[in-house]
Amino acid sequence: MVIDLNKDYTAQQIQVLEGLEPVRKRPGMYIGSTDLRGLHECLREIVDNSADEFFAGIAKNVWVYIHKDGSATIQDDGRGIPVDKHASGVSALELTMTKLHAGGKFGGGAYKVSGGLHGVGASVVNALSSRFRVVVLRNGKAYYQEYKKGEPQKPVSEASQSQLDSWLPKRLSAEMGDSVTGTITTFTPDPTVFKNIEFDSERIKAHLRDRAYLVPTLSFHYYDERTDDEAHYYFEGGIKSLVAHSNREKNTVSEVIYFSRQDSSQNITAEVAIQYTDSFSENVKGYVNGIYTVDGGTHVTGFRMALTRAISDYAKRAGLTEKIPGGNGLTGDDMKEGLTAVIYIKMPSESLQFESQTKAKLNNPEIQGYVSSVVKEGLDTYFEENPSDAKSVLEKIYLAARARLAARAAKEAVLRKGALEGSALPGKLADCQSRDAEISELYIVEGDSAGGSAKQGRDRRFQAILPLGGKILNTERAHLDKIVKFEEIKDLIVALGAGIGDVIDYNKIRYHRIIIMTDADVDGEHIKTLLLTFFFRHMSEVLQRGYLYVALPPLYRIQVGKDVTYAYTEEEKETILKEKGNGKLTVQRYKGLGEMNPEQLWDTTMDPKVRILKQVMNDDAEEADRTFTTLMGEEVAPRKRFIQTHAKLATLDI
């Protein structure tokens, strides 16, 4: 067959997307994804616009309302978006809300410092909303414009008091003077764009709390009309208080170390707050103009470089260098363990270079050297003036170094025996026929009985089964030397094929669906929690890549004659019983997966067409870290408080 390239590829195939159409065609380019993360990114964009009014020296408050109909309102007492006619012929408000790369953050003098850069935030949210309304308070008047999927419904108009009373969650005074200014944005996420349009209250409050730390003296007010939940945040301690808050459930090794520097010639300010705890995990966050850069960037890189140099230099100067058998001195990894740090950069918005619209990573090359200099000088001074804190930090780091070397030795000993090599898969693993990781699944099953049913009931073409012999090691406070010696975890590591520790390679992982399938009882929940702890602490990118799932097996089998129905919750069981009426019913409560025969297990929990899987994601690493520390750590008091507080909310399905 001969293909005429000139005939098949002509000007007719070239598309030009106008206005906000590119956003609706490719929303992931602008908000990262269309799942819950992308949904909350929309709200964050509007909140950040309001917070930028504080940087402009005007706003003192930001209000966030979540309404019963699923919409959200963000209100501030800033200057209010201009509504006068722009040179393009339309209102500045309409231009800002309907055109990409239109705004006041391109060096025109409206904002010296802001989180906005590309001028697309509000217009993107508008494009992805089924309904969107902006009310502007300026010059003692109220103006508004409404949109549907980014399209203006009519020109910018003056709003009446009755309209304001019906629209606004917080009634405004009928006599608005010149001092009453601000912007009020209400939007309803488009259900045809987002997989889920229900806002998460805890996620929103966590974001507002962090913003309040980063923007001291700006008040954030949160109201959730769905549950009557209410929260208010106002802090004056800045990032120093943020670090202390992050470590409130942990044993600290040092005080919070804080230093800052301002470069007036470049109008750049760098703030850094550091504290070590006795935990094994690291929590380092970078912010730029109030925006959390999830993937770090040059400011975080500069911090890490300077941290390593400053600690190593002080150890030599103070004569505290400790010989580490078999080691070559301290490494950056040693200094990560137990470290909590916040690096906060404020700089002119027109100078910012982010990797994408979601602002996940800072790319400004000059910031790396600037932050490195600030951190090196700050730590050098602090260690000289606080030798006891410096010694405590060094002791913690040397302990981490010794543990690292012990873990490496243990791992190498296991490797020499061939136990972690990909060619030596564990005997209990019933592998699948496929070698394509994208379609392959690994079921981690509790017990040999359930494992036997799963092996017989599975689709062996793409489903692998790994039974566990009971509860695994609690890896919350375990180093790798202990972990790789634990038989059940070692088998899991070998089966996954990615390795562990400093040689882990997630691109070699053998399954892109790793499914935890345990009994719906207390022991099953405990095993599930232990497995989640292992993945969160030692294979965290499995969560980031979306590979980890939890299977939801049924609790009941309900039979009427030959008709069989399965119920996954108590409520579902009661509903089914009411629907079946008073006929002769047989209700079987499954105590464990082992009670199900292979056909039942396939029909309810393993058949991709009908099964229920819940994906395990890590959207708030700090909150997840705190929860695992509380529930799986050594301290009893915080765990007891957590259980007493949340006991009534506990359910058996995750």
UniProtKB/TrEMBL annotation:
Catalytic activity field: ATP-dependent breakage, passage and rejoining of double-stranded DNA
Group of enzyme by EC: isomerase
Domain of life: Bacteria
Gene3D superfamilies, per the entry: 3.30.230.10, 3.40.50.670, Histidine kinase-like ATPase, C-terminal domain
Transmembrane feature ranges: none
Residue intervals of the Toprim domain: 440-554
A Gene Ontology BP annotation from the UniProt entry: DNA topological change
CDD domains per the UniProt record, alphabetical: HATPase_GyrB-like, TopoII_Trans_DNA_gyrase
Enzyme Commission numbers on file: 5.6.2.2
UniProt entry tagged with the keyword Lipid metabolism: no
Similarity section: Belongs to the type II topoisomerase GyrB family.
Protein name (record): DNA topoisomerase (ATP-hydrolyzing)
